[in-house]
TrEMBL record:
This is DUF2851 family protein.
Length: 428
């Protein structure tokens, strides 16, 4: 038994029409269950409940046991002063507000029908052996229901990604261009170097990128030096030595902080080496005018693809690392990599910026991501094995959100599909 079942019963009006009483035998009539609160504080806000003939308006708190009220120290928390009803599975102790007044309690252990409990247990019983709990039923869900839930999940994922953007904006005094650079360098670092690049980028004043962008050699030396790629003491490569000398000058000019650590190469394909990625990023900024504005104004994939049609500098055509010649090839950004940039960086920052400017571009961004090819990973493969095809990047992103934040955490009753299944399999 988990509290989410109590939440489900309450918010889905599963108790409507039943003769309910408090633990002290006062009648209870639920007028309005209120709004589920996903954050700190009581579980349901703005509920309306009639207790013993008296109508009360306020909040509702839920626990498995009444004594959890004290285990969670609600008796000393003013956020719970307006709780009008305590809904529990099992009543084991009387509960009082901070002012000493007793809170009416509704115990559900003897109220919930067995068919609902059985359906709930069946939904969760195969957690370890199955990909997801409802995999046997997934193909039976109405396509309209699934599509609408995936759209909501995608927006939810955008909102999750917005947290980092707002954090960076706060740290940079709303420097949107600087935040874009930080997000891009994190994405150019991929899984291996993304966190290292992000942490280091937070220490770099973006004004230095602005000041060096019109000089490709200076910009590349800043990126290679600041992100730890010019620390080879015995490298005699002419290009390397030129960048290192330039960086030493710029370090003094801009008072750049020393880099502790360096990016990794192990486990990366050569095309993803940090040397190649930083050179590509350098050329992206060196060759773009009004880069941030162009991205925010772009409405089509074609425009975005054209903006990211860049390559590493000429030195890297026959190198992947300093001083080691390789077979010649043009190191352009691949379409698949640009797609990832659009999905993970460009659309999230456009989403936040549209809110900042007071425009709602959610529908346009949904249309944009729907045109991008789906991602391939073990989670999308898992959905495919249970008969759920993924059509595009919107659905792959939504399914990542579904699996990571609902399925793998057994939050079935916070999921539209899980609640639909439980409603379908119960009869009250």
């Amino acid at each position: 038994m988990k509290e989410d079942l109590l939440h489900f019963i309450w918010r889905c009006d599963k108790l409507q029409g039943q003769p309910l009483t408090t633990t002290t035998s006062e009648s209870i009539v639920i007028k309005n269950p209120g709004t589920l609160n996903k954050y700190a504080g009581p579980d349901f806000f703005n509920a309306s409940v009639e207790v013993g003939g008296q109508l009360w308006a306020g909040n509702v708190e839920m626990h498995l046991k009444s004594s959890d009220w004290y285990a969670h120290h609600h008796e000393t928390d003013s956020n719970y002063d307006n709780v009008i009803l305590h809904v529990v599975w099992e009543d084991d102790v009387s509960v009082f507000r901070k002012d000493g007044s007793k809170i009416p309690t509704l115990a559900l252990k003897s109220v919930i029908p067995l068919d609902l409990l059985d359906a709930y247990r069946q939904l969760l019983e195969n957690t370890k052996s199955n990909f997801i709990n409802c995999e046997k039923d997934f193909k039976t869900f109405d396509s309209f229901l699934v599509e609408n839930w995936l759209h909501r999940l995608y927006v939810e994922r955008l909102e999750q990604k917005s947290n980092l953007i707002y954090e960076l904006l706060d740290e940079s005094n709303n420097d949107w261009e600087g935040v874009l650079f930080t997000l891009l360098i994190k994405s150019f670092g991929s899984k291996i170097n993304g966190t290292f690049f992000l942490d280091r980028a937070k220490q770099l004043n973006f004004s230095i990128i602005r000041k060096t962008a019109n000089n490709p050699d200076q910009l590349e030396s800043v990126l290679f030096g600041f992100f730890g790629l010019l620390g080879q003491e015995e490298c005699s490569d002419v290009y390397y030595l030129r960048l290192k000398k330039e960086y030493q000058y710029l370090t003094k000019k801009f008072e750049l902080s020393p880099c502790i650590g360096k990016p990794g190469f192990f486990g990366l394909r050569p095309a993803n080496f940090p040397t190649i990625r930083l050179s590509q990023l350098s050329n992206l900024y060196a060759k773009q005018q009004d880069f941030f504005s162009r991205l925010m104004e772009s409405k089509t994939l074609e425009n975005l693809y054209s903006i990211f049609e860049i390559r590493a500098s000429s030195y890297w055509e026959d190198h992947f690392t300093f001083g080691k010649v390789s077979r010649k090839s043009t190191k352009k950004l691949s379409k698949s990599f640009i797609d990832l940039l659009i999905i993970n960086t460009i659309i999230p920052i456009k989403f936040c910026y549209s809110k900042y400017t007071g425009t709602d571009e959610t529908d346009q961004l949904i249309s944009l991501v729907s045109q991008i090819k789906k991602e391939e990973n073990t989670i999308i493969s898992g959905f495919r094995t249970i008969g759920s095809k993924t059509k595009n990047a919107l659905e792959s992103q939504a399914k990542l959100e579904l699996y990571n934040n609902y399925c793998s955490k057994n939050k079935c009753l916070q999921c539209t599909l899980g609640t639909h299944l439980l409603n379908r399999n119960t009869y009250f």
